[in-house]
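Changelog-linked ticket: guanosine-5'-diphosphate example.
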Amino acid sequence: EAEQEIDFFFPQEQTLAVIKPDAMEGHKEEILGEISKGGFTISHLKETVLTREMAEEFYREHREKPFFSQLVDFMCRGPCLMLVLTKENAVEEWRAMMGPTDPEKARETAPQSLRARFAKDVLENTVHGSSDQQHAAEKIHFIFGDISADSDVLNEADVVSPPL
Ligand code: GDP
């Protein structure tokens, strides 16, 4: 009941965030701290090493791009942390926290962003975030399955869910 009232005034939105393999090597805790400071609620999280097949499916929109195989190699190189973030306007707000795809551009236009601070180059760029609500729903389903009936608040069962 109370939850419904909150949703009426501040409609919650979900987005999929990924801490990519480059950032898992040294910036995971700091990025999680930023997510929390940014006011996002983490409803689901899962650390996993993607298989090639999964990485290819995850980025299938880019399969014709010249960098596709590099991108798949990179995403399978080590563990990723997958997160469902909930907040009003979550898709746009998480994209803003990430900054532009290319960290050189990020350093010029969004120096506080995660990519400006932590990314090595346009490929190894620290974080992923859905570009719109449709993609968010699709990719959340791909990674976490059907979570539509779950609470927006993380519970222990989500944390210990088996790897993909
Ligand atoms: P994003 O939504 O900001 O992550 O950017 P895109 O959807 O355009 O690209 C997906 C991912 O592919 C990026 O996050 C990068 O890891 C990688 N990528 C994008 N553009 C390039 C590029 O020009 N060269 C290379 N090597 N990788 C790229």
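Closing comment: Example verified and attached. The first strand starts at residue 13 and ends at 19. The chain has a mean pLDDT of 92.
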